[in-house]
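Translate sequence into structure tokens.
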Amino acid sequence: MLDGLTVLVVDDEPDARELARRVLSEAGAAVLMAPGTNEALRLLRERRPDVLIGDIGMPDLDGYSLIRAVRALPESQGGLTPALALTAFAGEDDARRSLAAGYHVHMAKPAEAADLVAAVARLAGRVKSGDVAWGAATIGSTVAVASESSRTRRERLGLGE
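Result follows.
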């Protein structure tokens, strides 16, 4: 499902990075890994991944700082890269905050492998609305998708209304 895609996983926890790498690579993706924001930004500029997955609760520069730095980049350096927050911060306010910061999708840890793969495929434009089960309408559940204020971005990514 993810053949030919490159996904950048940013998490300060080595076990979390490795689990995401295993799940995504088994689905066919090439996976880049970074333990923090500075390395992630370097890889983003150099390798231009198709999707970014970022943890929120990282020391030093957290996931909100990461996505704000990404969104400040020009498009040619990855500033519009589709992004998913994969985090233990799983409340409704956490989801709203990550979406407002610039993530397209908020997913609570631990995520089911199939849900993570489907979310990445969808962000990369591999599947359309009806092709996979998708909890886009529920904030506070496993998955939340960017709010109406990000309508243009969602339409570009095929995330629908």
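Note: The first helix runs from residue 14 to 26.
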